[in-house]
């Protein structure tokens, strides 16, 4: 499973992890807001509740084709008895439930699908549930923004692969040393930098000594779109065996034309605001 993400709810750190495109929230962390010394006791008390079992059973029937309804009926009949106890692991083992997961150890804990976790939070504290939903929604909004930015970056990287493959096939003679190959790639990368930014990567670093990364990390959406187009165009020009100086002129002319169009496009402006 991916590494846990964390949100802060009323001074309580709550872990969130995603598996199979579903978000699971740590019930153990939620329980700590009410009973920091014995959070598992709170979860077991919640599982003893008949309303809780009805909720869990209905959720599993809606989302889990392998759920065992026979075992569920047996558990439900015992709910309410003084002798009835149930742990998350027992529930999962007996019924084949997937809405809960439980793992022992330092990095373990009991997690629940967000639908179930919100109900548990409401049982613990209505106030906590409302703040949990708010912080969870904020987390998902940030993920969507990051996803949009990653897609833009990946588009540029994919186009750059086309570009570098053309360099390798058309500009690099056989038997070059690794250092010579790197020099040719760097030269072509800076050709694009000059066409779009008017400076090489080294010149940018000298002008921006306090910034980390490279010139392209600070490009806006319009520049990233233009850069992707320039990479494809340069690959085509390389295949036509045009000299570098001539390609630079053509790329710079194209960059000027495209940036004029892109900076005036309201859809690009909207993406700029979301990035």
TrEMBL record:
This is KilA-N domain-containing protein. It comes from the Bacteria. PROSITE patterns: KILA_N (PS51301). The lineage of its organism: Bacteria, Pseudomonadati, Kiritimatiellota, Kiritimatiellia, Kiritimatiellales. Residues 3-139 form the KilA-N domain.
């Amino acid at each position: 499973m991916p590494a846990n993400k964390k949100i802060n709810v009323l001074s309580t750190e709550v872990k969130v992890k995603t598996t199979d495109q579903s978000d699971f929230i740590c019930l153990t962390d939620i329980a700590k807001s009410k009973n920091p010394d014995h959070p598992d006791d709170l979860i077991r008390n919640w599982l003893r509740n008949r309303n809780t079992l009805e909720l869990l059973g209905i959720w599993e029937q809606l989302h889990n084709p392998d759920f065992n309804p026979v075992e569920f009926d047996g558990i439900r009949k015992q709910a309410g008895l003084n002798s009835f106890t149930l742990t998350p692991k027992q529930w999962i083992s007996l019924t084949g439930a997937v809405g809960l997961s439980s793992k022992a150890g330092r990095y373990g804990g009991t997690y629940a699908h967000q639908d179930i976790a919100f109900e548990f939070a409401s049982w613990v504290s209505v106030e906590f549930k409302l703040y949990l939903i708010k912080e969870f929604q904020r987390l998902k909004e940030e993920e969507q923004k990051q996803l949009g930015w990653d897609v833009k970056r990946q588009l540029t990287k994919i186009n750059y692969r086309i570009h570098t493959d053309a360099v390798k096939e058309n500009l690099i003679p056989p038997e070059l040393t690794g250092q010579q190959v790197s020099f040719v790639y760097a030269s072509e990368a800076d050709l694009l930098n000059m066409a779009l930014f008017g400076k090489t990567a080294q010149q940018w670093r000298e002008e921006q000594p306090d910034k980390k990364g490279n010139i392209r990390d600070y490009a806006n959406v319009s520049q990233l779109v233009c850069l992707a187009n320039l990479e494809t165009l340069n690959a085509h020009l390389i295949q036509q065996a045009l000299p570098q100086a001539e390609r630079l002129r053509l790329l710079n002319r194209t960059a000027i034309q495209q940036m004029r169009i892109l900076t005036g496009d309201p859809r690009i402006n909207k993406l700029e605001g979301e990035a």
